[in-house]
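Re-running the complex after MR caught last week's input typo. The corrected sequence lines follow. Everything else is unchanged.
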Amino acid sequence: MAYRTSDKVRDKKDAKRTAMMQTAVQVFAEKGYHAATVRDIVQKAGVAIGTFYFYFPDKETLFVYLYEETGEFLAQTLEQAISSKTVLHQQVAAAVQAYVNIALYEPAVVHLMLVGGIGAVPSLHEKRSGFRERMAQMWQRPLDFATDEGKLPDQNTRRSAEMIAGACDEAILNLIAQPNAEESGVATVRDITLFVLRGLGYNSSAE
Amino acid sequence: MAYRTSDKVRDKKDAKRTAMMQTAVQVFAEKGYHAATVRDIVQKAGVAIGTFYFYFPDKETLFVYLYEETGEFLAQTLEQAISSKTVLHQQVAAAVQAYVNIALYEPAVVHLMLVGGIGAVPSLHEKRSGFRERMAQMWQRPLDFATDEGKLPDQNTRRSAEMIAGACDEAILNLIAQPNAEESGVATVRDITLFVLRGLGYNSSAE
Amino acid sequence: MAYRTSDKVRDKKDAKRTAMMQTAVQVFAEKGYHAATVRDIVQKAGVAIGTFYFYFPDKETLFVYLYEETGEFLAQTLEQAISSKTVLHQQVAAAVQAYVNIALYEPAVVHLMLVGGIGAVPSLHEKRSGFRERMAQMWQRPLDFATDEGKLPDQNTRRSAEMIAGACDEAILNLIAQPNAEESGVATVRDITLFVLRGLGYNSSAE
Amino acid sequence: MAYRTSDKVRDKKDAKRTAMMQTAVQVFAEKGYHAATVRDIVQKAGVAIGTFYFYFPDKETLFVYLYEETGEFLAQTLEQAISSKTVLHQQVAAAVQAYVNIALYEPAVVHLMLVGGIGAVPSLHEKRSGFRERMAQMWQRPLDFATDEGKLPDQNTRRSAEMIAGACDEAILNLIAQPNAEESGVATVRDITLFVLRGLGYNSSAE
DNA sequence: CATGAATGAGGGTTCATTCAT
DNA sequence: AATGAATGAACCCTCATTCAT
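Corrected-run output:
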């Protein structure tokens, strides 16, 4: 009886869960973990507070999950962009482009990772450290590769990677703070890519 | 005589006040605005909770004040470092050196500005934006100057300034996260300075 | 035909209802009224939560009903044991034996009456008082009868009845708390019966 | 300054803590652990809810402490009564008298131990078992002693002790349920003592 | 000036209950 | 009949803030 419709119901439930998670990401991104209350989330989602606890075990678990999930998405997207290219200047350009795309299309993702999850629960510190570590390593890999190939001068590639990550974050955070960010997207990608490649001492003429 | 006593009293009061503020900075930097309780602060300061409210109107006001004060100190220090030099590569080196010094000597200052005050109170958003704006402008000024002098290729100096700020923040945050940070201080200054100057397309041989 | 079907349906419904009630008794007995959630009950019964509310109006009503029903069963069983005999020492022995049997065979019944329904809902206080009253009166009747026949010395039979009830409850609660209670069943019946008859000043040789 | 008055303040604080604990005992005794809310307690105590948490860490801790404390008081009082005498019939009489006194003077103590702490939190089960165990052992000691002296016929003294405890509890619970309980105190002590000694097969003429 | 007992708004979470399917 | 998603009152507890001493 109820079985016939169960598929439809399950789909609807999944859709609602997803919708609530997106709402939660926005609220967390906007206010940060502590300042965002469960009541804030359910109000924005238009459901009762009990509904939150029907879908998620508790606030902290959801936040950690969202943070990991979002970080995973962001990191994988950038990693794929890098993997899709073979020479450094294309890798950097692709990754920066991907980052900017995400920032323009889903700014909450960027906010959650860079702003929302700070000063929160102890278990978050590790997650946040883990994410920053992953981003650094992601940038470091192509640098080491290019160094091996003689495309980069000798340098502490780990530190360079950190600086690239920091430079991207800051430029992108400033980008999405602008009223009409989309228009500046292309220029931003170009500026960041150029700055990064120069900063690395990349010899573009060598190709 | 009366003046002397009064002065002494005020000195003592100011001293206590200052001590409490330093404690507060430490606690805020360590735990973030929300997780840091007034009780945490007064316990670490060794005073009663009522004393806190004798010296400060409330937690939020103190935090905002501390954030501004600390930001002011950080910005002024870097600005002075820049002002003390006349050519770009020295300006960058001096500012980075100053930043690293603060990070090594008073990591709480850096933590408060970059980590502690996020996702906290609404009024902080502006302050935080203001601080980042100031840092960007601080970096932008010497870039514009160097551009005018033909020492830098044409570029969006505002964006370059943002990226410098972001690169510094990230590299320094990683630095002070290390167990023995002091030893890496010199190398960090060199790495950052080199990366930044290269990133800007700075023609060092032109001098 | 229609009757047959209707009967079958009702039987099935009653069967399910009965099964759920038995489950509920177990859960209430084990956890007590407050700690036992409706979810606990339906999960153990293998039905959905809505089904609970199809069969029962609400948790409290069910609990009160179960408490009354179980008390009725326990009291009637003991009363019948007493009625089946004519002389006091046999009446006591039969009632104690019946009580121990129930405790060994359906410990949940005993737990529900003696442990599960305390400090629960206000309306339970009366029910609980009523049950204890009934048990006291049940024991008092044969005592009064034996007193009239000169088999018992003068005494406050009401108080004696209360003490018999209390002694039985405590001994039986201790019995079913043991790992292998069945083995001690016979001895327990003997001990209780002897203690009670002695306590009443029963002159067994007078028969 | 504040030091001079600190003694007075501390005394007042202790007094308030004690008063709140007594209030809590009453509420717990009346409603049981789960049904008694922290709001119930503070309302009856005439303080704000925060005051509760200023004096006590949380509801469960307070309850366990109160339960242990009260059990300790009850058990020690009865144990002392027993220790103050040397022959069994006086020991029983003294203990029963002490129990009845407590019941009449502080019925909440009895209610908390016999009614309030049931079906509560898991950790309470042990405490409750521990208390009943202690009461049983308390009664068993003089029985074993009297048995050694040939004052009691052979019997399972552990079981006898349980029954004595149960008989006392029930009789006393019924006593304090009466409107004018004090008047029945003397008779109750006599009835219980007589019933218990008879039940044990105590040979009073042997002295 | 300094103290810390006292307050209560508000946050996270549970769970009995309803109702559309 | 049966289901389980959805609800929201109510619970326990924290913590910024006040004020009498």
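None of the earlier attempt is carried over here. The mean pLDDT of chain B is 91. Chain B has two domains: 1-56, 59-206.
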